[in-house]
Amino acid sequence: MPWGGAVTIHAYALCILVGIVIAAWVTSRRLTKRGAEPGVVLDIALLAVPIGIVGARAYHVFTHPADYFYEGADLWRTLYIWEGGNAIYGALIGGAVGAYLGCRMTGIRFWSFADALAPGLLLAQAFGRLGNWFNHELFGMPTDLPWGLEIESSNPAFPAGLADGTLFHPTFLYEIVWNLVGVAVILFLERRFRLRWGKAFGIYLIWYGLGRSFLESIRVDPSEMLLGVRVNVWASWLAVVVGIVLIWVQSRRHPGTEPSPYRPGREWERPEPGVDSDDIESDSDSLGDAADAENDSGETRATSSSGRTS
């Protein structure tokens, strides 16, 4: 999308940015309602987002080595995120590292942040998948279903040997729908079972891992294989296992309610409600009162209350 003839704005990048903004907004609202300081999510995001983007790109590059590492390859292309290629599992790993560091800095419990993030993360992924439509990438096998996606035969990802006009499964659309349903599932289970201590994030891992493992199996884009299975399918299965283990461990370790989103000793000191500046006596107020009293009485009171504050 050219702008002014000098800057090119890629719809794929815009989708990712919109997803990040929405995830941050949802997470901030949810965390603030649980007692966190308004705006603290931005402090965490300053580390989580850039490290997550680096992780997303690194994971994609190293799981698609043939696309970037070959004789005569331009290694700078490994940095061209506008060409597509940002893996959610890499983003999760990198983002988790950044979020952990941000939580340590702000005093927020890491699992409290992860729980608040869970539904917003699915929303962000849904918007990110919309970018795959603009790029016409990451589609599935051929189909004759009425909602099949037509891909131009000049597309580098178009499978060889197929006729022009072949329709393909819009796997990114399937994932958008799956993610949006997942938001409702997480919110329902969270309200029904008071999920805290990372258990809502565990539901996210299970939900997303199950859906992604199926969608990966019908995609036609090239991928590294491990024991005859796509690497991202293995990663999806691992996400499901991690989610189950997380819920089981945290249920045993923390059967009660979460007392605060802050770690002990790092709680946010809320300003007292109803306090007006006129109600607080300052040094200048005390000096003025003392001067008035001196003028009224005609007596000098050098040791009056001029130095007191309240």
From TrEMBL:
Residues 275-297 have a biased composition (Acidic residues). It is an enzyme of class 2 (transferase). The keyword Transmembrane helix applies. A 1,2-diacyl-sn-glycero-3-phospho-(1'-sn-glycerol) binds at residue 129. Residues 264-273 have a biased composition (Basic and acidic residues). Residues 254-310 are annotated as: Disordered. Keywords: Cell membrane, Glycosyltransferase, Membrane, Transferase, Transmembrane, Transmembrane helix. The chain crosses the membrane at residues 6-28, 40-59, 79-103, 110-128, 172-189, 231-249. GO terms for cellular component: plasma membrane. It is found in: Cell membrane. Pfam families: LGT. Residues 300-310 have a biased composition (Polar residues). Its main location: membrane. One of its GO terms (biological process) is lipoprotein biosynthetic process. Pathway: Protein modification; lipoprotein biosynthesis (diacylglyceryl transfer). PANTHER family: PHOSPHATIDYLGLYCEROL--PROLIPOPROTEIN DIACYLGLYCERYL TRANSFERASE, PROLIPOPROTEIN DIACYLGLYCERYL TRANSFERASE. Belongs to the Lgt family. This is Phosphatidylglycerol--prolipoprotein diacylglyceryl transferase. The lineage of its organism: Bacteria, Bacillati, Actinomycetota, Actinomycetes, Micrococcales. The gene is lgt.
